[in-house]
Task: structure prediction
Amino acid sequence: MMALSMHGFTQNDTLIIEGHTVLVGEIKEIDQGVVTMKTSYSDKDFKIKYLKVKAIISERTFNFTLNDGRRFFGSISIDSTSNQLRIFDRKKGFVIVNPNELVYLKQIDEGNIFDILNLSLDIGYSYTKSNNLHQFNSSINGDYNRRVWGIAGN
Result:
């Protein structure tokens, strides 16, 4: 069972996992059964199995995909009477679903471009003295997501 709830005016998201462990940070996404969360007290993002999560508390806007292919854009809470997820989509209204139906969730803030644009650049150089081999490599990754569309590239 997974419980989600909305709480106001904090910039941090909270995950409560099995054993009542509480993680505070920024939920990046849920994809392929794994929750990715960035925290200020870790060098790398935490990756937690979705089935271990007991509650998510966030005020952020998310892009949701359910296992039947339906997509929603908005906020999420829990219906306390039925322990079902209550997704509020601005155009579709409230939808109540079983927590097991959620297969993908990605944070989509509606702020300025720097709130929703992710870029990374990797540059490398290798030199092998025995063959006098020089190698330069680089990669750039980025994604930009809005309510109606998004783009990602490598």
Observations:
- The two ends are 36 Å apart (CA to CA).
- Residues 1-10 have pLDDT under 50 and may be disordered.
- The helical segments are 113-116.
